[in-house]
Amino acid sequence: MSQITVISGPERRRVWTDQQKRELVAAVSAPGANVVAIARCADLRPNQIYRWRRQMAGRTPDEVYGRGSATPYPGHAPDRAFTRMAA
For 38-74, how does the pLDDT look when each residue is reduced to its tens digit (9 = 90+)? Predict the structure, then answer.
């Protein structure tokens, strides 16, 4: 059986303490840890744990993914107009 959590009231987001965040990040940092399984046990999505890990390392998403450069990825041309291809 699955467990369903119903959050009612005006605030629908859960609040995680810094200690809880540190414990989850430490758990996924262990050798052989399965991030998806740990996230599932904590009833959250893996991307949230990755975000907390980045924040604890003091890095912004732009620093992690290298955004902000003139060419974010090969072949990208922001000023190039899109043209429709004939079928």
Answer: 999 999 999 999 999 988 888 766 666 665 544 444 5
Cα dihedral angle (60, 62, 64, 65), rounded to 10 degrees?
160
- Whether 61 and 67 have beta carbons less than 8 Å apart is answered as yes
Torsion angle, CA of 73/78/81/85, rounded to 10 degrees?
20
What is the model's pLDDT at position 9? Answer: 67
Q: How many Å from the N-terminal Cα to the C-terminal Cα in the chain?
A: 50
Q: How many CB atoms lie within 10 A of CB 39?
A: 19
> Mean pLDDT in the chain?
76
Going by C-beta distance under 8 Å and a sequence separation of 6 or more, which residues neighbour residue 41?
Answer: none
